[in-house]
Design goal:
Blueprint: E1 2-6, E2 30-31, H1 33-44, H2 53-66, H3 74-79, H4 81-98, H5 109-120, H6 128-138, E3 147-152, H7 161-172, E4 176-179, H8 191-201, E5 213-218, H9 221-234, E6 240-244, H10 250-258, H11 278-284, H12 292-300, H13 308-320, H14 327-344, H15 348-365, E7 376-377, H16 378-399, H17 402-420, E8 425-426, H18 428-439, E9 455-458, E10 468-474, H19 490-498, H20 508-522, E11 524-533, H21 545-557, E12 559-562, E13 571-574, E14 577-580, E15 595-596, H22 602-607, E16 610-611, H23 613-621, H24 623-631, H25 645-660, H26 669-687, H27 697-720, E17 724-736, E18 740-751, E19 757-763, H28 769-777, H29 781-791, E20 796-802, E21 807-811, E22 819-821, H30 827-847, E23 850-851, H31 880-883
Parallel strand pairs: 1-2, 1-3, 3-4, 5-11, 5-12, 6-9, 6-10, 10-11, 16-18, 19-20, 21-22
Antiparallel strand pairs: 7-8, 13-14, 15-23, 17-18, 18-19, 20-21
Helix pairs in contact: 1-6, 2-4, 2-5, 2-17, 4-6, 6-7, 8-21, 9-10, 11-12, 11-16, 12-13, 13-14, 14-15, 16-17, 17-18, 23-24, 23-29, 25-26, 25-27, 26-27, 29-30
């Protein structure tokens, strides 16, 4: 015969772990509601697979809709059907637990409507309350059970009405139900013992703390974990229990491992773990408008359903031109197909596998777009769920990662829920609510594994049902549990009570939780250590409710300790144990440096470089930054990302200009604007799809309002100056004296009536001041570099076409029609200044060292008469922490 220990929180772990008298026992399990239901259903032959709540909510939403209009929930159901169904399903389950008979005649309008919903919910899967009610009905005949007794961790009134009725049936079947009465376990001579007896009966006590009760606070959770780990490392207590409130010991585990101790291995369930987001991403890429960021995440996360060799190419295309219809996207697919066919060789079977693999990848990244309002066809939604399930199942079979198994389960649950909704088309908002509900259970960290240790860990104090030595209550902070309020009015309560299904008082859940907290304290024999860590640890709002309950006694009996003392003094006392702390020798952080020694062979590497206008701009602003970026190739770590809205607008403008202004006579202004208007929408889909998203509505309107007129203005500029287009996006390079190799791409190259080159650099910018200042100050490095490469020693003219402002900014001395700017020197003179300054800066680098521009005193290390020197923008520099412009914070 079985001897069962049953408690509301024992499913998450309990101490002791079995109910026998020795170190092990057979037939004496410690179980929670799920565990006891499984035992009783197995005994009675009533077992059935549990159904996830997401499926039940979907089925109940369908039932609410089928119950007809003019219900008390009708307006809420129309506004947010899923949330309404979730809330009302909770009400329904509460009623069932109370013993509610939906078939009876009810006077209350809300009870009447809920009864109508119950009648319509013929396909509603069973919840725990239904299973408890079914067991109670099954046992009403007084069947014999192979269970001798059930010991109750909680007091009987703290269980719900359904469980209390089941207890009555169990007793009628001959099962003894015995409450476990908590009693003080510590000796009366220590503060912990006096605290426990005060909690039990309010007995007066002698003041004084002795370390057996400790209230520890710390603003740093990491420091608190370090101190607790140090205490565990030197403690000789053989019987220790850690209560990990909220079920998470990540930081504590790190500290334990650092101290050479086993990990507790508790982890809070989270929906934001790797593969769990795959289903949501798979749906996101299937909605219109297309979301490039979602596809980028799907392609780049480790273990992506698209192999890295293909996903990398597609991700590069998305980063370069965010869209699924443009030439870059198609080119990426062509390279992928060529590569896969080449890998297959001449084997027909391998070629068939390669074709199937490519088709599978396409189904992930190019699903049929669905209208978010009209909804996705049910068949398409189920296909996405099936695709995720198949992939996750295969991955789990390959590497046994539990996250893949959980992903497959979630996808299957969402599939069942979508079917249960009973709709032909599914709006985006509804699908995402379903997925959020399915993900709500989350998954713990698969890397958080409990290691063999002399202590035990439970996630809730309610799991402690017998004596233990020392209790460390980790994360002893405010908690939201027990905040339960019944929705019933007084009239509804009276009607329910009259029908034999009385509602419990609102305070029952709070009383049960409070009793569980106090019970844990009562079971400690030698020490109680309560640890509250966090930035607000000293704030009243951050205190655990039990801390308020114990405050009258703990202020006289407990030792209060700020764990920050561990970094202030050489030793602290925690729970009567002295912890030695060793002060580390501190070192001053590196100071700002303006001159840096030039590395060996720096000159050889510089000689082998191919420069660009951007490279010149970097070097003329800061030698150190230029050397790190262009010579050492030191790059900041980055992940692929979608360009921001401003860059997307610039890319669109360049693409339009490249298409419209082909070699030859430029189109008329009106024709250029018309072509731009006609091509803009298609180009947005090809290379700037994020502009279709609601959050970019303002930028999309700006593109439609500004870009076609910008093409018109550019055409007018070409006509006004009598220019003929020679090339757009022209790639050029040149080799100058001293083996100075330079390359670049010129946006637009034209020729005037005399056959001389005119260079037009297209700029999309909100503020034109920077470009105008460059022209005025003789610092237009890009224009001067392009001119030197293209025209050599022949005459040329150049300028910036400011697309957003629809202005052609050029030097007044050029004689071009546009926005003339008086400059201190011509563009050829600017190139000469660049060459002169570049050579003299190289001499400085080879002599005294590399100068960090922008820092105070940097000018002292530079020649005083440099013809051109640009201002270093340290704010946007990737190397601020090297030269110490900015610290490491």
């Amino acid at each position: 015969m079985m001897d069962i220990i049953f408690g509301l929180w024992a499913d998450g772990g309990a101490l002791p772990e079995q109910g026998g008298d020795g170190p092990g026992a057979l037939g004496s399990p410690v179980v929670g509601p799920d565990g006891l239901l499984e035992i009783l259903e197995t005994v009675c032959g009533l077992g059935a697979p549990s159904v996830p709540n997401v499926v039940r909510v979907a089925a109940y939403q369908a039932a609410l809709e089928a119950a007809g209009p003019q219900r008390f929930w009708s307006r809420s159901l129309e506004a947010d059907g899923w949330a309404t169904a979730r809330i009302l399903l909770g009400w329904r389950d509460t009623l069932v637990d109370m013993g509610w008979n939906a078939g009876a005649a009810w006077r209350s309008p809300r009870l009447t409507d809920l009864a109508a919903a119950e009648a319509a919910a013929t396909e509603l899967p069973l919840a725990a309350c239904d299973r408890v009610a079914a067991l109670a009905h099954h046992l009403s005949a007084g069947r014999p059970l192979p269970i001798a007794r059930i010991r109750l961790i909680e007091a009987r009134p703290h269980y719900s009405p359904g469980w209390r009725r089941l207890f009555d049936r169990l007793e009628a079947c001959g099962v003894s139900l015995i409450p476990i009465e908590p009693a003080p376990q510590a000796k009366t001579g220590i503060a912990l013992g006096r605290l426990q007896r005060w909690m039990q009966n309010g007995a007066p006590f002698q003041e004084g703390s002795d370390g057996s009760v400790t209230l520890a606070t710390c603003a740093s959770t990491a420091l608190a974990a370090e101190v607790v780990g140090q205490w565990l490392a030197i403690s000789d207590e053989p019987d220790i229990l850690i209560i990990a409130q909220e079920g998470d010991t990540h930081l504590l585990d790190e500290a334990l491992a650092a101290a050479g101790l086993p990990r507790a291995g508790r982890s809070r369930a989270s929906a934001h773990r790797g593969a769990l987001q795959t289903l949501l991403l798979a749906f996101k890429v299937a909605w219109a408008p297309f979301e490039p960021r979602a596809l980028l995440e799907l392609l780049l996360f480790p273990g992506s359903p698209v192999a890295q060799r293909a996903g990398g190419r597609l991700a590069a295309a998305i980063e370069d031109a965010p869209g699924r219809q443009g030439p870059r996207w198609q080119a990426a697919w062509e390279r992928i197909m060529t590569h896969e066919i080449e890998r297959a060789g001449d084997d027909a079977a391998e070629k068939h596998k390669a074709e199937a693999r490519i088709a599978r990848w396409r189904s992930w990244v190019e699903p049929e777009p669905a209208d978010p309002v009209a909804g996705m066809p049910l068949a398409d939604a189920l296909a996405i769920c099936d695709r995720v399930t198949s992939w996750a199942t295969a991955r789990h079979a390959q590497d046994e990662d539990p996250l893949y198994r959980a992903t497959a389960s979630i996808a299957a649950d969402v599939r069942r829920a979508l079917i249960a909704l009973g709709r032909d088309r599914l709006p985006r908002a509804l699908v995402e609510r379903v997925i959020d509900q399915a993900l709500d259970i989350g998954h713990d960290n698969p890397l958080a594994i409990a290691e063999a240790s002399s202590w035990r860990c439970v996630s809730h104090p309610g799991g402690v049902w017998n004596a233990t030595g020392t209790i460390i209550w980790w994360n002893f902070r405010s908690t939201g549990e027990a905040l339960v309020r019944q929705p019933w009015t007084e009239a509804e309560r009276r009607e329910l009570a009259a029908a034999g299904s009385p509602a419990d008082a609102d305070t029952i859940a709070a009383s049960a939780a409070s009793a569980a907290w106090e019970r844990a304290v009562m079971h400690a024999r030698s020490r109680l250590i309560l640890v509250n860590a966090g930035l607000d640890a000293e704030e009243e709002e951050a205190q655990h409710p039990l801390a308020h309950r114990l405050a009258p006694a703990t202020k006289l009996l407990a030792h209060r300790l700020r764990l920050e003392r561990a970094i202030e003094t050489s030793d602290i006392d925690l729970a009567g144990t002295a912890l030695g702390r060793e002060r580390l020798e501190t070192r001053a952080l590196p100071k700002t440096r303006t001159i840096w020694p030039t590395p060996d062979r720096h000159g050889d590497k510089v000689a082998a470089l191919e420069h660009s206008a951007t490279s010149f701009e970097s070097g003329l602003a800061c030698q150190l930054m230029w050397a790190l970026k262009h010579v050492a190739k030191l790059r900041r770590g980055r992940v692929r990302s979608v360009p921001d809205a401003n860059q997307l607008l610039g890319n669109l403008a360049h693409a339009l200009a490249q298409e419209i202004f082909q070699p030859g006579a430029p189109p008329e202004a009106g024709a250029a604007e018309a072509v731009a208007s006609g091509r803009l929408e298609a180009l947005i889909d090809e290379m700037a799809a994020p502009l279709r998203l609601p959050e970019y509505a303002a930028q999309l309107a700006l593109a439609r309002r500004r870009l076609p007129p910008a093409m018109r203005a550019l055409s007018r500029t070409l006509h006004d100056n009598g220019l003929v287009v020679e090339a757009s996006e022209f790639q050029t390079s040149a080799l100058f004296d001293a083996a100075l190799a330079v390359r670049g791409a010129i946006d637009l190259v034209a020729r005037d009536a005399a056959g001389h080159h005119v260079i037009i650099d297209l700029k999309w910018t909100r503020r034109p001041a920077k470009r105008l200042d460059e022209l005025a100050g003789g610092k237009a490095v890009q224009l001067a570099t392009y001119g030197a490469m293209l025209a050599d020693d022949r005459p040329y003219r150049a300028g910036y076409f400011l697309l957003n402002q629809r202005q052609f900014a050029t030097l007044a001395a050029n004689g071009l029609i546009g926005r003339p700017v008086e400059g201190v020197r011509s563009l050829p003179d600017t190139w000469a200044a660049i060459r002169d300054s570049w050579g003299r800066l190289a001499h400085v680098a080879n002599g005294s060292g590399l100068v960090a521009g922008g820092l105070e005193g940097s000018a002292d290390h530079l020649p005083a008469d440099l013809p051109i020197l640009l201002e270093a923008n340290c704010r946007w520099c990737d190397y601020q922490t090297i030269c110490r412009t900015r610290g490491l914070a």
